[in-house]
Specification:
The structure holds two protein chains of two kinds. By secondary structure, chain A is mainly α. Chain A has a domain of 38 residues: Histone, subunit A, CATH 1.10.20. In chain A, strands 1-2 form a two-stranded antiparallel ribbon. Helices cover 35% and strands 4% of the residues of chain A. Chain B is an alpha/beta fold. Chain B is 37% helix and 12% strand. An eleven-stranded mixed sheet of chain B has the order 1-3-2-4-6-5-10-11-9-7-8, sandwiched between helices. In chain B, strand 7, helix 8 and strand 8 form a beta-alpha-beta unit. In chain B, helix 2 packs antiparallel against helix 3, helix 5 packs parallel to helix 6 and helix 9 packs across helix 11. The relative contact order of chain B is 0.14. The chains are: A mainly alpha, B alpha/beta. The interface between A and B is large, with 48 and 69 residues.
Chain lengths: 95, 508
């Protein structure tokens, strides 16, 4: 499986990952090489094999919905790159 | 014993208990050692000297009032992927270079409950993606046995730090071998617990179905002590299991040679040697060391089956490098420069800001894995990659289940080679991935495994030989059934007592 330069660009877009031209070229080559190594999986018959369940058999986990202490606003905002009036600040999302 | 920082946990604990030393003295000794060797090793990202000394004073007061737990007053270093309240937690990434967590990981709370002393945070491959610690955004860590070589990864900082006595023990995390492989490369003991045995709350997520936190220690009794401290159910991690935590130290049998009334330490245990782990490209010295070590297990009473086979092993690498990047691509979607972390300024709209933030915040290996994972999960490729890998994961897991009906444990090399050179594999991702070929299947199956020192070898290529005359460490991996950590520790301790490998320290 070869990954073309255009496919690399498309995947980067899906991941919202900016890539330089040089990176895109390099990834096209490197990812193709890695994907070749995945072809070994084609030889194994997985008809009727279920996809894995968690390593340890577990049911869903429930707990009481209890009110607990949350973090103070300043602690939550302390790492924010941009903030205003005790809120995270982002650029406009709607036109 | 020459200096306090050279002590093991159990040795230091005895001296603290008898008040022959104080935690402040022990902590000062470790800090002094860090100051001496850090220029050569580069194992640490952050050193918290002042708070470490405060914690040591608290520990001394605690001991004076007649209390002591196994880790009380003992200095430790923590891999920088585990959240520490008020202490920068970078994940080896520019993305989190200035991130200060508002809370502690559960394992940190557990260490603090015992009044442990945290010295700082250790270097790692960015977001734990790598096998050499060269993918740290800050600097590579050097292997103390040969400074021109890698310490392994991704917990390379933790392993190198304990190997040079910068800390008495350290915590790492293991998604595909990241505790065991560096422990093997640095002559340390490293354990990857059963998935669900240790809480992942506060462990920055890489691949959530594979990640576990594990100890890196100087010997097996220390590993047992740290495991008893960090294991256990946590309501904040729904994948942690509500099973009781054994006192792992109770399962270590002293005097394994059969001269005690308890007989040979490994009597009654069946151990399988899966042929598929003695792979092509494996160094002959590693193979020979493993064969010698396995014969030692036999002498200690274990019944060895040299002909064990796990035929699906050859698919593990592909399965891992589809599943781990897929999970990573989802987990790392959170780094958008809004709530915390690096954020690129000056882009004209919100999407461009996100793209640039991720372009400049992440290093090349992280980007490579986000790309791989996004591709494997994308429309039209999901069935061929992600779903297929999840199905083969079932087969790999079933093979382990079958094997453990016959055997109490499996023994393999930890890595097919000794530590490689800095720069040797950095431009060839596939070669780097292959260095984890013996450890990946264990995370895929979710079972526990320990790596212990099993000998030394010179690099087989004469042109690459350098460093100390004794050569480079070789690790032996012992794999067990789910929640059989006590059996692994029992086997590891029996072996450890018959050799001196674990006592050897790099000449620095």
């Amino acid at each position: 499986m070869k990954l073309s330069y255009d496919q690399v660009k498309h995947i980067a877009w899906l991941a919202r990952l900016g890539l330089s031209e040089a990176e895109s070229e390099k990834f096209s080559f490197q990812l193709s090489n890695i994907l070749e190594n995945f072809e070994v999986l084609e030889e194994i018959d997985t008809t009727n094999v279920p996809p894995v369940t968690p390593s340890i058999p577990q049911q869903n986990v429930f707990r009481e919905d209890r009110i607990a202490k949350s973090y103070p606003q300043n602690a939550v905002l302390a790492n924010a790159p941009r903030q205003e009036e005790n809120c995270f600040k982002v650029q406009a999302i709607l036109e | 014993m020459n200096e306090l920082h050279q002590l093991t946990i159990h040795e230091a604990h005895e001296l603290l208990k008898q008040r022959k030393i104080s935690s402040v003295e022990l902590t000062r000794s470790a800090l002094k050692r860090i100051a001496e060797v850090e220029d050569k090793i580069h194992a640490c990202v952050t050193i918290t000297e002042d708070s470490a000394l405060r914690q040591a004073e608290e520990a001394d007061n605690y001991i004076s009032s007649g209390n002591i737990a196994p880790l009380t007053g003992i200095p430790t270093l923590v891999k920088d992927v585990i959240c520490t309240q008020g202490i920068r937690t970078t994940c080896g990434s520019k993305m989190l270079e200035n991130f200060i967590p508002p809370y502690n990981a559960t394992v940190i709370e557990k260490l603090k409950a015992q009044k442990a002393v945290i010295l700082g945070k250790t270097n790692m491959d960015e977001f734990a993606m790598g096998s050499s610690t060269e993918h740290s955004a800050f600097f590579p860590t050097h292997n103390p046995w040969d400074l021109s070589r890698v310490p392994g990864g991704s917990s390379g900082g933790s392993a190198a730090a304990v190997a040079t006595d910068e800390a008495i023990y350290a915590l790492g995390s293991d998604t595909g071998g990241s505790v065991r492989q560096p422990a093997g490369f640095c002559n340390m003991v490293g354990l990857k617990p059963t998935y669900g045995r240790v809480s992942r709350f506060g462990l920055v997520a890489f691949a959530s179905s594979l990640d576990q936190i594990g100890p890196i220690t100087k010997d097996v009794p220390d590993c047992a002590l740290v495991m008893s401290a960090i294991a256990g159910h946590d309501p904040r991690d729904s994948t942690s299991v509500p099973y009781p935590v054994p006192d792992y130290s109770q399962h270590l049998i002293p005097d394994p040679s059969g001269s005690s009334p308890r007989g040979f330490a490994l009597e009654g245990l069946k151990i399988g040697i899966p042929q598929e782990y003695f792979v092509e490209g494996m160094q002959n010295e590693v193979r020979a060391a493993l064969e010698t070590a396995i014969r030692k297990l036999e002498e200690l009473g274990a019944e060895i089956d040299w002909e064990t086979s796990l035929p699906s092993t050859k698919y593990a690498l592909a399965v891992y490098y589809i599943l781990a990047p897929s999970e990573a691509s989802a987990n790392l979607a959170r780094y958008d420069g809004v709530k915390y972390g690096f954020s690129e300024r000056g882009a004209s709209n919100v999407i461009e800001t996100t793209e640039k933030t991720r372009q400049f915040g992440f290093g090349s290996e992280v980007k490579r894995r986000i790309m791989l994972g996004t591709y494997a999960l994308s429309a039209g490729y999901y069935d061929a990659y992600y779903l297929k890998a999840q199905k083969v994961r079932t087969l790999i897991k079933q093979e382990f289940d079958q094997a453990f009906k016959k055997y109490d444990a499996l023994v393999t090399p930890t890595s097919p080679t000794v530590a490689f050179k800095l720069g040797e594999k950095i431009e060839d991702p596939m070669q780097m991935y292959l260095s984890d070929v013996c450890t990946l299947p264990i995370n895929i199956a979710g079972v526990p495994a320990i790596s212990i020192p099993a000998g030394f070898a010179r690099d087989p290529s004469p042109s690459l030989r350098s460093g100390s005359g004794q050569g480079l460490p070789i690790g032996m991996q012992i794999i067990g059934k789910p929640f059989s950590e006590e059996t692994l520790l029992r086997i590891a301790f029996a072996y450890e007592q018959t050799t001196d490998w674990h006592k050897k320290r790099p000449p620095l």
